[in-house]
Amino acid sequence: MDAWIAEELKTADLGDERLNRRFEIVLERLAGRPSVSIPAACNGLAETQAAYRFFANERVAAKKILQPHRQATLKRIRQQATVLIVQDTTELEMTRPEQKVGGPLNWETQIGFLDHVLLAMTPERVPLGVVDANIWARDLEDFHKRRDRGHKPIEAKESYRWLQGYQHACAVAQAAPETRIVCISDSEGDIFECFAEAAAEDAAGAVDATGGKADWIVRSGQDRRLATGKASLVEEVARSPVWHSFEVKVSKRRAACGDDQKQKRRQERQARLAVCTLRAGRVCLKAPWRKDRQLQDHDVNVVLVREENPPAGEEPIEWLLLTSLPVDTLAQAQTVVEYYCCRWRSRFIFGS
Questions:
Q1: Which of 53, 72, 124, 333 has the smallest count of CB within 10 Å of its CB?
Q2: pLDDT for residue 67
Q3: Rounded to an integer, what distance in angstroms lies between the CA atom of residue 291 and that of residue 194?
């Protein structure tokens, strides 16, 4: 058995030493051939049947499977000065004509599971491991009521996973007090309750200089109101001075939906070299109304990356990043952009 498997599963405890041993064997087989089926990865029929019995055992829960890997990941995190925890949701499509496994994804006929994962990595884009994974299936009845979600508390919405993700990142920060933890979310994570969670910890004084609090970067998904009421978020940041201009290689993209779909990231675009500007500053966001609670206005730092003159017919490149990280200097603002790029393990190259 490979030494790394024994080290990674050192703290595994499935309640039975035989299950722990089978865990090691299954991991070794699947790690050796990750792209093939379970029967193809196993050595013969007996081992394949043993693997399926292992997965069917009620003691083999998802959290217990992840636990030893999470502990090993925390050990690696503690060896770093800064660690990025990227959270995102992926679809596990299980659509089959003969059986229904899971719940609806984007459409009723597309069936499967959703998996919200928190992946830890270094700023140099070296993966360290998964610190949490939440797998669930939508209920078909609830799927038809999604338009009513505006009147539900955050805890009753799917979007609650983003707040929970940030809370998990804070737990990692507490377990690794010498490491700076930065939680990164895309525009789906632009939820005011996440900002309130971070601010509440600050106000409570629960976080000291030794750690226990995760910083965060969220890509803005909406043009929020400001507490001043004089301008919107985008307007306020866009009229601030340009700090820097640089070129970005934009790749070609095929449309992933119909023309009526308004999501920019699903629309077709042509490859080009885009000239973008960078602006940064600090604003106070107006708290939105909630039926079940009173939210407070919050100060956030912002970085705006924008293509000022896109080609005719092309949507401009634009990222508005909200963050708790400092953006007082150009280098600090560029660091925020670089960290966010780690979601794709890509990199912006800032010219002089």
A1: 124
A2: 96
A3: 17
Task: Report the pLDDT value the prediction gives residue 251, as an integer from 0 to 100.
Answer: 83
For residue 259, what pLDDT is reported? 44
In sequence order, which residues have a C-beta less than 8 Å from that of residue 163 and are 6 or more positions away?
A: 154, 191, 193, 194, 197
Give the tens place of pLDDT for each residue, 168-212.
Answer: 999 999 999 999 999 999 999 999 998 888 887 555 444 443 457
Superfamily (CATH H level) for 220-352:
Transposase Inhibitor Protein From Tn5; Chain A, domain 1 (3.90.350.10)
> 1-60: which CATH number, 3.30.565.10, 1.10.246.40, 1.10.300.10, 3.30.420.10?
1.10.246.40
Torsion 27-28-31-34 (CA) sign? negative
DSSP string, 61-109: -HHHHHHHHHHHHHHHHTT-SEEEEEEEEEEEE---SS---SEESSSTT
Q: Give the Cα separation of 168 and 181 in Å (integer).
A: 11
Instruction: Give me the pLDDT at residue 260, please.
Output: 45
Q: What single letter denotes the amino acid at residue 192?
A: F
Task: List, for residues 243-256, the tens digit of each pLDDT value.
Answer: 999 888 888 887 76
215-219 and 180-185 as β-strands: parallel, antiparallel, unpaired?
A: parallel
- Which tops the pLDDT comparison, 318 or 80? 80
Strands, DSSP E only, in the chain?
A: 82-93, 103-104, 111-121, 127-136, 180-185, 215-219, 244-250, 272-285, 298-307, 318-323
Going by C-beta distance under 8 Å and a sequence separation of 6 or more, which residues neighbour residue 178? 78, 210, 211
- Are 242 and 275 a contacting pair, CB within 8 Å? no
End-to-end CA distance of the chain: 50
